[in-house]
Amino acid sequence: MRRGRKLLFENVTFQVHAGHRVGLVGANGSGKTSLFMLLLGELEADDGDVQIIRGARIAHVSQESPHGRQSALDHVMDGDEELRSLQAAIRESEREEAAETLHDLYERMDQIDGFAAEARAARLLHGLGFEEAQYHSPVDEFSGGWRMRLNLARALMCRSDILLLDEPTNHLDLPAILWLEQWLRRYRGSLLLVSHDRDFLDSVCTRIAHLERETIRLYSGNYSSFEEHRSADLARQEAMYTRQQKEIQHLQAYVDRFRYKASKARQAQSRVKMLEKMKRIVPAHVDSPFHFRFDEPDRQPQHLAQLEDVSAGYSHPVLEGVDLLISAGDRIGLLGVNGAGKSTLVKALADGSTLLDGRRTVSRETRIGYFAQHQLDLLIPTQSPLEHLRALSPGDRESELRRYLGGFGFTGDRIFDPISPFSGGEKARLVLALMIRQRPNLLLLDEPTNHLDLDMRQALSMALAEYSGAIVVISHDRHLLRSVCDELLIVHGGGVARFDRSLDEYSAWLQEQQPETGPGQKKTARKESATQSTRKDRRRQEAQRRLELKPLSDRVRDLEHQMGEQRARLDRIEEKLADASLYSDPGRLDELTGLMRDQAGLKSSIAQMESDWLEACEALEQAAGRAEPG
């Protein structure tokens, strides 16, 4: 199959059966969307045959934003074309009083469960985050993102044999994504799915189709299984092997910081497990075009930003009584449904623009790097990536700026092109590149992975995992949250509190928040009232608890920072010791001796720091246990 002069793939043969859930992965432009268009009959293959079982119903999500005064519920129900056809035929037969025809139509309606169709459509809307009061609202009253959710619900409403989903999570928050995962796991037809969310692919898919080098290869298992198989394939390619080892060694050096007595500290154990998983993932992305890291911030104050008794919102408060202290090295993930106030909280930290009451304090040495989707619109369309970067670094050489942009996938003449025709992913990469170049010590990230493909998401996760500054991140990408965050906060019910469960338990927590019905409803209302009356006290207790633990957590962060610096010095020395001429040249004997002495000293120093760090982690863990309420 070709698009214009470009060959997308050739000599491709594979089958998809009922019950198969296939994830399509591959670089942008490899042909994923074209394959969907081929199956829909919108494009034709240049050679070969596409065979679809006769009478199969194919459902897909329309990319056109719907409009009109039709209700949300009716728009979704239109997804079941046979249902709508039967309903029209029944109305016509009732007018004509054709009893025999009506009997047959009613029987068919019963066979397709048509009399419960409205309830089925309502369940889809509820699962995708719509309130019951919105079911009968006109489509025109919804924003663009919510209209795309309506299109997704409409596709799911179709009783299809084949379901094609192209980035279905783009306009969803995490609760809606978790619901969609469960729905798709129950789907009995053939599912073909394009997604850049690795946890979503892992949860849903039974096979992965990888589009690469003008072919499509089908792997059994989910996305993690695909990565393992692909890692083994790449390791057998000698040209890639050397680069792969460099990536693994870099991560191993980071893991080594936590290797001593890891069984004695839960915090150390958790970090090592996360990094070991990253080490397994890296080989599958070794040929990624994206490679970048954060430079060390110029300064790292202990206390970066603080909110005290803050009310935040717009014309009316969305959050009230917020007490939050962000200190050096904090790595916080924000959870909560759409509209709960996560972005409102981040904006209050970033520039105070949503602050209605209370106090916001920022250290003089705090340098904030703020990423949000609206910043893509602040780029200058007529300027190139190089021009944008040169405005930030006017004194740097062009070769250095080109090298830097290359780490974000901007190479060749692309760095000189105006950005106006760039895709959303390319613009997001450029905004991230510009933010990172400013060497912030506090990162505020609001959905940083939107528009980014799997390789770029992995590169960002690795860079953030090694970043020494503080992070507050909103993301529906669970892999990013697991890789980056040490602490989770829940934004819920107009407040902010620590989420004491793991990320994997978030789905269960959401279920617990569903209101009860029947006899238990009054009990739930009383419980909610009591919860609201004590919420502010709990928030103050949480803030006080964090302040009491701060000296211990500061000690942990300080040791991590020192170990990072010492490890970097050791890496530089060992690079010099790898020079063969150092050993063969008698005139460099003193240099060799000095390097070996420095190497031994640094190894001893790092070992002692690791021991001190472990003790500090244990002290922090014990203090946190004593401070737990109840």
Could you explain the architecture of this structure?
With 630 residues, the protein is of the alpha/beta class. The chain is 48% helix and 15% strand. The protein contains 21 helices and 17 strands. The strands form four sheets. Strands 4-5-6-3-7-8 form a six-stranded mixed sheet, with helices on both faces. It has a six-stranded mixed sheet with strand order 13-14-15-11-16-17, with helices on both faces. α10 packs antiparallel against α11 and α13 crosses α14. The longest helix has 57 residues. It is globular, with a radius of gyration of 28 Å. The N and C termini lie far apart (64 Å). About 4% of the residues have low confidence.
Search tags:
globular, alpha/beta, single chain, 630 residues, 6-stranded mixed sheet, 17 strands
Helical proportion, percent range: 40-55%
Mean pLDDT: 85
How much of the polypeptide forms β-strand, as a percent range? 5-15%
Query: What class, by secondary structure content?
Result: alpha/beta
Termini separation:
64 Å
Say what oligomer this is. Answer: single chain
The dominant shape is: globular
Rg result: 28 Å
- Count of alpha/pi helices: 21
Topology:
Elements: E1 2-3, E2 6-7, E3 21-26, H1 32-39, E4 58-60, H2 72-77, H3 81-96, H4 99-111, H5 117-127, H6 144-157, E5 162-166, H7 174-185, E6 190-194, H8 198-204, E7 207-212, E8 215-220, H9 223-235, H10 238-256, H11 266-281, E9 303-313, E10 317-327, E11 331-335, H12 342-350, E12 355-362, E13 368-371, H13 385-392, H14 398-406, H15 424-437, E14 442-446, H16 454-466, E15 470-474, H17 478-484, E16 487-492, E17 495-498, H18 506-512, H19 521-577, H20 581-584, H21 589-627
Parallel strand pairs: 3-6, 3-7, 4-5, 5-6, 11-15, 11-16, 13-14, 14-15
Antiparallel strand pairs: 1-2, 7-8, 9-10, 9-12, 16-17
Helix pairs in contact: 3-4, 5-6, 10-11, 13-14, 13-15, 16-17, 19-21
